[in-house]
Every structure is written in C-alpha cells, then in structure tokens.
Design goal:
single chain; alpha/beta; 2 domains; four-stranded mixed sheet; three-stranded antiparallel sheet; globular
Length: 511
Amino acid sequence: MTRSDRLAVLLSLLAVLAAYWVHDRIFERMAHIEDEMAYVWQAQAIAGGHLTVASPPIPKSFLIPFVVDYAGQRFGKYPLGWPATLALGEFFGVRYLVNPLLAGFAVWLTYLLGKRLFGQTVGLLAALLTLTSPFFLINSGSLLSHPLGLVLSAMFALAWLDAFCRRDPPRPWLATLAAAASLGLLVLSRPLTAVSVAVPFGLHGLYLLLRGDPATRRRLIALGAIVLGMSSLYFLWQYAVTGDPLLNPYTLWWSYDKIGFGPGYGHTPQGHTLRQAWINTRFSAYVGRYDLFGWPNFSWIFLPFGLIAVLRDRNWRALLPVSVFPSMFVFYLAYWIGSSLYGPRYYYEALYSLTLLSGAGIALLAGWPTRPEAPFPNYRGWRRVQPLVVTAFVALLLATNLLFYTPVRLASMVGLYGVQRSHLEPFLTPEAQKLAPALIIVHTKSMWIEYGTLLELQDPFLNTPFIFVISRGAIADAQIASHFPKRFIYHYYPADDPFTFYKAPRPKRTP
C-alpha cells in the first residue's frame, strides 16, 4: 500500500466519522422526512421477515408516509434495495452505522477511480473534495438511499473500467461480474438512477460489441444478461406486494407519481411539462452551486479546467464516469418534482463525476500530474510559485466551507420539520413506562409531523410497548380502541401538553 493509499484510507475513515457525527448530532439518529420514515418502516418489516404486513384497522389512523395499504396488506412503495440494506442495520441494532460506513466506502471508491483515471494526486483531491462536500455530509448522515446508490454507481464505474478499458485485465470475468452485480443492485434500489448511470457505459458497450474481440463480446452479453435477470426481481417484488408485476406501488400513494410528460404525470392538471422540468432543474442546479463544495455560488469553478485536462491528455476513458452527471441531469428532467432540501439529491449518485473533474482541474492549474504514473514536474524559477498559489487558493476555499458554509448549512437541518428526539422523552420516563402496553391516540395539528416523530417508538407489527394512532374523531378512535382490548387507552396532545396522558379526550379549549 502506497503513502497515497494510506492517506485515502484516512480520508475514508474521516468520512465515516463525519457522517456518523451528522447522523447523531444533526439528525439525532431519526427519520425526518416522509421518505426516511417509509424506509425505516420497510427495513423493520424486512428485518422481521416480511415484505408486507396485514393492514391495521382503519389504516388512515395509522398513517405512515409512503407506506401503502392495498388489498388488505401494508407495504412501502420503495424498491427493496435500500430497505433491505437498512434492514441489516435494524436486525443487528446498528442502523446508525449503515450510511456512515457507506460514506467511507464511497470516498475510497472515488479515490480509486481518480487514481485509475488521472493518478494518485487527482484521486486524493477527489476524495478530499468528497469528504468536505456539504452535499455529501448531509446525505451521508441521513437515512435516505443515496449513499448506497453512490457506492453502487462508483463500484459499477470502477468495475467497468477494469473489465473493458484495460488492454489485458488480470481478472476480466471477475470485474465483469462485479459491474453486473453493482448495476443490478442499483436497479433494485433506484431504477431511474441506474438507467442514467448505465447509458454512457452502454454506449461504450455498443461500440465494443461492434469493434471488440469475441471474448469482450461474450463478457458484455453476460453482463447484460445478469443485469436483466437481476432487474426482473423488481417486477417480482411488485408482484409479491401488489399481485400485479406491472403495478408500480408509487402510483398507489399518488396516481400521478410517474416518470414522463403530459397529463397524468405530476400533480398539475396539464401534467409534467418541459417548462416545469426546466424550472425544477434550474432550481436544483442553483442549490447545487452552493451545496456541492460549500463555495458560495462557485462550486463549479474547477470543472472546466478538469475537462480541459481530459481533452488535453486524450483521456477518453475518463469521459465514461464524468458523463454520468450530465446523463443523470437529462434523465431526471422526466421526473415531475425537483430536489433541494438535502441538496440536489437526485444527482447524488453522480457525485464522483464532479469531484473527479474538479480534482483534475485543480491538478491542471497547479501543474500536477493528471495522468496515471506521470511524474511530478520539476519546476524552476517563477513556475515554482504556481502550485503554491493554487494550493493556497484551494485551502482558502476549503476553509471558507468548513468554517462558514457547512456549519450554517448543517445547523439549518437540525430539528427539520420539527422532528426532534426530545419529543420522545415523555414516553421514556419511568411513569410513562408503567402505562404500557398502551394505545396512544395522538391529537395533532400538523398531521404527519407530530405523529411521524413518535413512529421511532413503534414497529410495523404493532407489538411495541406503545402504539400510536392519529385521532380522526370520537367514532373512529373508539373503533380503533375496540381492536386493542388488552391495551390501555390514552389521549395525547404533543403540541401543548406533551407530558400528560389523558384517559379521555380533554375538553376543547376556547381561545
């Protein structure tokens, strides 16, 4: 292992620690948005050995965002890739480590991609840029699926380069299998993302099918067959939960939640349009200019120089992973909603495209190598100042991000949507524990937020000490209570009286 490799390992370990810190201190190890709540529910169900559970009585009283009730069964709308991965953390009681570990792996893979394509210097720069990216830290500290997607995307790119971009690959079939498995798992996690990742490499694959040798063609055909076989599991999952292999569970929550344009795609009467797609994309790009590296409005500045380095060196292999970002940019035009809260997260799986290109741009400006095995130049005279100036400038940008932008950006995510672990404390006191087993009827003002916070104390099987329902009126509440005769019934008002449990609904308060 070289010194560069050891530095990359250190950066990867720092990524694990940083992501864990964000998950623990910023997000308090809790789901904050609807997607996360659904992922956690699915992971708990899978950890318990089930894809679906029987729908509870009056399902709307047990509202969990993006968890669907259909044909008497309850299941999450999301594909199984990420919930199954998160289920491993649930099963072993280490859910809080899953995304931080993936974050560390993503930094290591980014380094390997940079080392393979541009050399060790660019690999380290790309790894450092990844580690210090607010975009990376926010998503790595969440319970969202994107960190897994980034790892699978980078693994696919690296394996493809090993299998099809080296003259005499040492283990071509192993690299081919790794590429197929990575892409197949990405399909089972984020299908549209998988398509956008695959397209640049697929175009290269078509070229190799026409111009490559027979052995290469056989491996390409095998890769395609494996990916198609794994992708078929997506339809098997849809059949398992809905009874129809072509019924997308997304549409069972929102009928318009589909990819495409025109009426029926998106929530407006006219449907999703190119104009709306452009508005969404522009806003995502605007947020990304800040969140990518935390250099206000200037996170893109090294990208053109990185592209110049690629063209100057005729480093055509590098165009494959670098093209993943524009491919993703184009494909997500077809989705009716944008992303900004966690940064432009629909493009997260292409993060290495931007960090590699930015790292190559920094190296070009500093006069450092941008090709593997290229030696450091021995500059004389005034040229010695060039790398010092660039290093000082990059250090200033990184310091600006770490001292100013990232702390403010992370602070803005604390208590997101009002979700805080302190809201669970009323149920953790010795007095509250004596009330169990209990059915808690939650009287909310904001519907899913106050109720969703409490789901941290409940599992899909409704066998936890406390189970929670949303109050939907006296008649519905009484019907719910009749289904749980062995539980004590309490009414709970989290907004203004969080430490009191009422045996009957409290009288309405006059203003």
